[in-house]
Specification:
Largest sheet: 6 strands, mixed
Bound molecules: zinc ion, fe (iii) ion
Order of helices and strands: EEEHEHHEEEEEEEEHEHHEHHH
Number of helices: 9
Radius of gyration: 18 Å
Mean pLDDT: 98
Strand content: 15-25%
Helix content: 25-40%
CATH superfamily: Ribonuclease Z/Hydroxyacylglutathione hydrolase-like
Strand order of the largest sheet: 1-2-3-4-5-6
CATH architecture: 4-Layer Sandwich
Shape: globular
Structural class: alpha/beta
Length: 257
């Protein structure tokens, strides 16, 4: 079986659009709908018909393009049941812990409460890909808005159970700012230093820093490294629980400039 083609692109200010295409069947999905015009442009460029939208959460910068794309393509919209009233045009609801088949591949639905209450991520093991929305970013994680720190800690931590070869597709291009914060709590981390330099260069050239791999995130992302002794020492939290370290990191990130 050939692999599904993945085309990420940046739209709006710093949102990621992503189009999946299975060439044999023609199945084509957008992950979230931040900007209908930008998504349509990508589709037209390759002569593709949108068949599905996978929605991660209800925020406008992930859903505002849905109705326009539905009108244009008659695509089916898949999204979290827990946010069904807040997402326009939903056709198929999915639940945390569930799975469905798309283009002949299994897609597992990961519950990710924290940024929003009903947020989900989509994991396609056959493609070594996870679509994390605003839960896990490269070298960072989403703001905790509707859920608790404890929920977000578990939502982010579950990515540690996936293969390090998994490509992480996230909702925003925040890598440069995330690296600056990460270096403030983990300054001696060589992998992080290298990632920061690479991100600087990529963004300087107007290129994307995503997807990354989870393996790289395990080495660089402080929110996946709450048990790291250097980070704990920097926070003066040697004896705290991982969840407490996570909450402190997220609180500091909110105030970090
Ligand atoms: Zn969001
Ligand atoms: Fe967002």
């Amino acid at each position: 079986m050939s692999h599904i083609e993945m085309q990420p692109f940046i739209c709006l200010e710093d949102n990621y659009g992503l189009i999946l295409h299975d060439s044999p069947s023609g199945a084509t999905a957008a992950v979230d709908a931040p900007d209908a015009d930008a998504i349509e442009k990508q589709l037209r460029k390759y002569g593709r018909q949108l068949t599905h939208i996978f929605v991660t959460h209800h925020h406008a910068d992930h859903t505002q393009g849905i109705m326009q794309l539905k009108e244009l393509f008659g695509c089916k919209v898949i999204g979290p049941k827990a946010e069904a009233e807040k997402i326009p045009g939903l056709d198929i609801t999915v639940e945390a812990g569930g799975k469905f088949t798309w283009a002949g591949r299994e897609v597992f639905v990961l519950g990710c409460p924290g940024h929003t209450k009903g947020q989900i991520a989509y994991h396609m093991p056959s493609e070594f890909a996870v679509f994390a929305g605003d839960t896990l970013f490269s070298v960072g994680c989403g703001r905790v808005i509707e859920g608790t720190m404890e929920e977000m800690f578990h939502s982010v931590s579950q990515f540690k159970a996936l293969s390090p070869h998994t490509f992480l597709y996230c909702g925003h291009e925040y890598t440069l700012a995330n690296c600056r914060f990460a270096l403030s709590v983990d300054p001696e981390n060589r992998a992080l230093q290298a990632r920061a330099g690479e991100a600087e260069q990529l963004r300087g050239e107007g290129r994307m820093t995503c997807p990354t791999t989870l393996g790289d995130e395990f080495k660089t992302n402080p929110f996946l490294r709450c048990n790291d002794p250097h980070i704990r020492a920097a926070l003066n939290m040697a004896a705290a629980s991982d969840a407490e370290v996570f909450a402190e990191l997220r609180t500091r990130k909110n105030a970090f400039r």
